[in-house]
Amino acid sequence: MIKNLAYLSLMFALVISACSTTKDLPAGQKLYTGGEVNFTDKDLSKKEKSLLTEDLTALLRPKPNGKIGPFRFKLYIYQKTKTTKTKGLKHWLNTKFGEPPVLASDVDLTANITILQNRLQNRSYFQAQVTGDTISKDKKAKAVYTVSAGPSYKYRNIIFPTGTDPLDTAIKATASETILKKGEAYNLDAIKAERLRIDARLKEKGFYYFAPENLIFSAFDTTIAGHQIDAYMKVKNDVSERARRVYTINKIYIYPAYSLRDTALKLDSAVKYNWYNVIDRRRRTIRPYVFKNTVLLHPGEVYNRTDHNNSLNRFIELGPYKFVKNRFEDVSADSSKLNAFYFLTQYPRKSLSVDLLGRTTSANYNGTQININWRNRNTFKGAEALTVTLFGSTDGQIASSNGGYALSQVGINTTLSWPRFISPFNFKADNAYIPRTNLSLGYSVINRSQLYNLNSFNGSFGYQWKQNVHKSHELNLLAITYVKPASVTELYLDSIRRTPNPALKHVIDPQFTFGPSYSYTYTNTTETYRTNTFYYNGRASTSGLLTGLFMGADTLGGNAKKVFGTNFNQYIKLENEIRFFHKLGAKSTIAARVIASAGLPYGNSTILPYSQQFFIGGANSLRGFRARSIGPGTIDPLANNPNGFIGDQSGDIKLEGSLEYRPHLFSIVYGALFFDAGNVWNAKSAATLPGGTFSKNFLSQLATDVGAGLRFDASVLVLRTDFGFPLTRPYKSDTAKDKVVFNLAIGYPF
Fold first, then answer.
1. Can you give the pLDDT at residue 538?
2. Around Cβ 642, how many Cβ atoms within 10 Å?
3. Beta bridge partners of 515
4. Is pLDDT above 50 for 53?
5. DSSP characters for 190-225?
6. Residue 366: in which H helix or E strand, if any?
7. Positions of E strands within 116-203
8. Phi-psi domain of 155 (left: phi exceeds 0; alpha: psi -120 through 50; beta: other)
9. What DSSP string runs through 380-434?
10. Angle at CA 276, nearest 5°, toward 270 and 278?
11. 390: burial class by Cβ within 10 Å (0-12, 13-18, 19+)?
12. Is residue 393 packed enough to be buried (19+ CB in 10 Å), middle (13-18) or exposed (0-12)?
């Protein structure tokens, strides 16, 4: 044992020696290891010192060489690959992965002292003093800055303009919304934010030419007892007359076929439509009524920045336009009216593209897909987008535990999207987002090698719209799916006969579903400045509701009904998914997910159609188990399996939860420690699946796992590796073989 420890110590010493980065420094130079900020104030709280230290340290320049643990690998690579050549492997390694040494002589103490002192004064410490020095040891040196912050000055009063002209009155009217509060410490960043807030409010009231720079906070009195100050909000004396005016909209002009070669406005050729004018040099490239959903400003109304910005966003969301340029012009020098101009540059109307994809699926399949897409962005001159996609894909399983039968698919999808509601009712939306009406039709042939071929038809008609930046809705008035087997092999039929699991037969049963669905999504996860972010998606769908009611469908009662010669499915289905993210520092996160979903077959059905059932397990689910290998309930997927084929385990009810800690390790590499739990169950009991029905004992039937992994997050692509270890299985069996499951996937699991 001692001998082994000696060998390990020797190897560690060799690594340390090999990674030494100071022996190759220029003569007389020292490696800069970073800056340190120390406070002498005894009155500062521990929390305030910590926040100030973090803030000030981030301002220090230069930054020292980056480290992974105790080692400066980039500097080491730079030193070992240094070369005078401008080509070759050494030069490439040196320039791409190396980092030149940051020397103590590069540090400008005086400049850093000035920066730190200014920041402290901007953070209410008006009497702050900073000194700096360097401390050396061997061939390394660090900078130490000693700070005497002094007292923090707080607001006693925030005083807004008291004048009676329209501008002063409008500014004073925003006082109740101020972000500056009595008793809070002075902060220059907060003052800048306050000026931006006031400017935004004034832009809603018609002050088009006003700017944040027209405001000034002045007359700070630092002699008030208790280190308090009075802050006076004022409009600068030299503000122009235009900045003080309230502007209204005069006329609106739209150029739907604009190019950079167009220099003349040609106002005499404008065609008036409702409240705006269209100037189309190419004669009817798009119908004028389209812009009713985009132009939110109206003649005679006071200029409003929200309507202005929302209009610009809606022009882009229409679809045919690549660029939108806008400008406002005074009607005359002494006028308080504006003419608005929108110059729209089109995409090519028709386009053809080819996508070649590599992918991993939730069922542990790896494969490729090719899409050939044809698109018309302005099909009927109403900004309708027609997209036709021909696709083909093939997927297979490597080292699979369920047979590895390859899956291939070819088909066509067609979608026609209108940038408005197609409805007998008049819906009005005035936010930044264009509502859409979508009609889609598709057909595909699904081939499971050596098992079966399926013909699949689908279609839908419905609406998509965003309520605001956080909330979105999707309502399909009708969604139709029809799946019918084209051929089934004896191998698969033999599996159905030998295995009691009805899910195998359910895959090849004809499936006919039709009905409405509604989905609601709320998310603020794109707001990365938040400590806590949240995502929720809820979906409700049904099939054959009214049809089954009118026809009196009752399969259990021997009264199964058909539509177009096929038994149709009847069910009600509710799905819920919640995700929660809590930031731990700048880059590390705790993430949690809960899924609670259920489908209830009734009337013409005793089980959900296969395409609507729930599955669990795999790279994006329970990572300690193979994909779709858990459930329903306590069913053992490996029991009664004489020919080695295991079908996907499915159910009508799904409960799933995950908790994951995602620490930032270095560079683009993140770690993960996770815990997963969940299962699926059937809503109704089946004689061939004892233990597969949801009951009061559902908690004891949850499968659980723990694991660890790495995420290589390059922003545009995330490569993920996970090792999952099963903790508990819902079934009591010795047939389970997996002690650890490795998952390789693209993207985060949630």
1. 98
2. 9
3. 479
4. yes
5. HHHHHHHHHHHHHHTTT-TT--GGGEEEE---TTBT
6. strand 366-376
7. 129-137, 140-148, 154-159
8. beta
9. TSSS-EEEEEEEEEEEE-SS-SS----EEEEEEEEEEEESS--SSS-----SS--
10. 35
11. middle
12. buried
Provide Rg for the chain, Cα atoms.
34
Name which of 750, 655, 659, 662 is nearest 706 in CA terms: 659
pLDDT exceeding 90 applies to what percent of the chain?
60
**Which residue type, as a one-letter code, is found at position 347?**
Y
pTM: 0.81
pLDDT mean over 117-132: 95
Which of 37, 75, 29 shows the shortest CA–CA distance to 59? 37
Instruction: Return the structure tokens found at 257.
Output: 């076929």
Residue 8's pLDDT is: 45
Q: Report the interhelical angle of 73-80 vs 89-96 (nearest 10°).
A: 150
Of the pLDDT bands very low, low, confident and very high (cuts 50, 70, 90), residue 19 is: low
Cα–Cα dist 195/284, whole Å: 45
Q: Tell me which residue of 198, 236, 208, 437 sits closest to 301, measured CA to CA.
A: 208
Q: What three-state secondary structure class fits 501?
A: coil
Phi/psi of residue 424, nearest 5 degrees = -70, -10
Tens of pLDDT, residues 148-172: 999 999 999 999 998 889 999 999 9
Mean pLDDT of 289-316: 95
3-state secondary structure of 709: strand
Assess whether pLDDT exceeds 80 at residue 180.
yes
pLDDT averaged over the chain? 88
Residue 382 CA: distances (Å) to CA of 285, 290, 310, 460, 689? 9, 6, 20, 21, 55
Answer whether residue 397 shows pLDDT above 70.
no
